[in-house]
């Protein structure tokens, strides 16, 4: 795929292997035996598809087709992907900015100011924020400006490029 295959991505893959210990993390959720070995191999293959920012840009169906994994289906790939996304740094292997931010919001305490509205913004109108501004977003969402400002500040405090925590952009 267009992931880490050739453009300085090897550092991220090694960082994933060293920093995230993906195989060890999945031991708790994957079955034992040959099928689990396939899924651990799939985890490595997904890591190879990550770009320098830690995003999975290739569609899961294309990854499955490229890997020709036979009896591993897209639901199993999604299970592995969801596990990877929750390792540290949270948000690695997200497929878009909104998903990356949602994953990070999911690990915050429930009483975090602006959390519910930040989730709503990350799930939809986030891409309109640069054009609309905070006040335009408040109007669109029919929410008080100060609440939208709090939610946007929370979103801005998150890491939109979690892969950069693992490996430098240049090797």
Quick structural gist:
About 55% of the residues lie in helices and about 0% in strands.
Report the sheet-strand fraction: under 5%
Q: Can you summarize the main beta sheet?
A: none
Number of helices: 9
Distance between the termini: 20 Å
Strand-and-helix sequence, N→C? HHHHHHHHH
Kindly state the percentage of residues in helix. 55-70%
Mean pLDDT: 78
Q: Could you walk me through the main structural features you see in this protein, from its secondary elements to its overall organization?
A:
With 171 residues, the chain is mostly helical. Helices cover 56% and strands 0% of the residues. It has 9 helices and no strands. The protein has helices at residues 10-20, 22-26, 34-48, 60-67, 74-85, 97-106, 115-123, 129-141, 145-156. Helix 6 (97-106) packs antiparallel against helix 7, helix 7 (115-123) packs across helix 9 and helix 8 packs across helix 9. The protein is elongated. Residues 1-31 have low confidence and may be disordered.
């Amino acid at each position: 795929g267009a992931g880490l295959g050739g453009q300085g991505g090897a550092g991220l893959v090694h960082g994933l292997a060293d920093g995230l210990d993906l195989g060890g993390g999945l031991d708790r959720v994957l079955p034992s035996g040959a099928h689990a070995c396939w899924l651990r191999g799939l985890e490595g293959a997904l890591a190879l598809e990550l770009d320098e920012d830690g995003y999975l840009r290739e569609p899961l169906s294309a990854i499955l087709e490229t890997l020709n994994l036979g009896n591993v289906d897209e639901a199993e790939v999604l299970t592995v992907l969801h596990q990877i996304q929750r390792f540290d740094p949270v948000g690695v292997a997200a497929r878009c900015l909104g998903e990356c931010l949602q994953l990070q919001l999911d690990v915050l305490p429930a009483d975090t100011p602006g959390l519910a509205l930040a989730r709503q913004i990350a799930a939809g109108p986030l891409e309109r924020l640069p054009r609309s501004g905070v006040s335009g977003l408040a109007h669109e969402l029919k929410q008080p400006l100060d609440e939208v400002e709090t939610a946007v500040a929370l979103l801005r405090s998150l890491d939109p490029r979690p892969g950069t925590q693992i490996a430098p952009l240049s090797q």
